[in-house]
Amino acid sequence: MMVESASETIRTTPSNQNGVSSLSSQSDGGGGREGGSNGDVNGEISPVDLLHLQQQQALQAARQFLLQQASGLNSPGSNEVKQSPVQVPVSMAMMSPQMITPQQMQQILSPPQLQALLQQQQALMLQQVKHTLCSKQLAFQQQLIQMQQLQQQHILNLQRQGLVPMQPTAAMQSLQQGTCTHRNHEEHTGSHPLYGHGECKWPGCEALCEDMGQFIKHLNNEHALDDRSTAQCRVQMQVVQQLEIQLAKESERLQAMMTHLHMRPSEPKPFNQPVSTSCDAYPEGLPHPPTSAATPITPLRQGPSVISSSSLHAHSHSHTHPVGPIRRRNSDKYCTPIASELAQNCEFYKNADVRPPFTYASLIRHAILESPDRQLTLNEIYNWFTRKFAYFRRNTATWKNAVRHNLSLHKCFVRVENVKGAVWTVDEVEYQKRRPPKMTGSPTLVKNMISGLGFGSLNASYQAALAESSLSLLNSPSLVTPPSAASLNMLHVGHDDVSSTVEQVNSNGSCSPTLSPQQYSHPVHVKEEPTEVEEDSRPVSLLAGVTHSLPLPSDERDLEEDLPTEELEGVTPLEAYTRVRTIYTCWENITLHIKTPSGMDTLSSSSAPPPGITLLSGIFGCLACHFIPVEKMHTGSCVYRSLGEDPFPLFPLCTRHLLF
DNA sequence: AACCTTTTAAACATAG
DNA sequence: TCTATGTTTAAAAGGT
Question: What range(s) does the Fork-head domain occupy (predicted)?
Answer without folding.
Answer: 355-428
